[in-house]
Design a protein that fits this description.
Number of strands: 0
CATH superfamily: 23S rRNA-intervening sequence
Number of domains: 1
Largest sheet: none
CATH topology: de novo design (two linked rop proteins)
Low-confidence stretches: 1-5
Strand content: under 5%
CATH architecture: Up-down Bundle
Helix content: over 70%
Number of helices: 4
Mean pLDDT: 93
Structural class: mainly alpha
Shape: elongated
Distance between the termini: 21 Å
Radius of gyration: 16 Å
Order of helices and strands: HHHH
Length: 129
């Protein structure tokens, strides 16, 4: 087994924060209009859950290169969620304070993911020298 698996995915701060973000999104979208259940509510929930899910799946893969790819997918889900959050604010489905709170957590998760991805990219580069 590769050293990328030395820690369980539950030990990764990125996964923990991703789970926290997912919970926040589920709670906040529960007050969205019922006609949005299969619209933006569903999209935001799927994007949010995709973040820790991809971190977990990537961490359990057999190589750092695969892990890096899954971290990139998680970052894409963060951007997707951020866009959907902005639309929700514009549609007045959430308050400015809820928008700021979730945006801050998304930004924090993205910073952690960028750092984690960069670390593993450097590790991969150093092993290929």
């Amino acid at each position: 087994m590769k050293d990328v698996n030395s820690k369980g995915f539950r030990d990764l701060i990125a996964w923990q924060k991703g789970m926290e973000l997912s919970e926040m999104v589920y709670k906040i979208t529960s007050s969205f209009p019922k006609e949005e259940l299969y619209g933006i509510t569903s999209q935001m929930r799927r994007a949010a859950v995709s973040i820790p899910s991809n971190i977990a799946e990537g961490q359990l893969r057999n190589s750092k290169k695969e892990f890096i790819q899954f971290l990139s997918i998680a970052l894409g889900s963060c951007a997707e969620l951020s866009t959907q959050l902005e639309l929700s604010k514009r549609l007045r489905y959430l308050t400015e304070s809820d928008f700021e709170l979730i945006s801050d957590v998304i930004h924090e998760v993205m910073k952690i993911l960028h750092g984690l991805r960069k670390k593993h990219q450097l590790d991969v580069s150093n092993t290929n020298i």
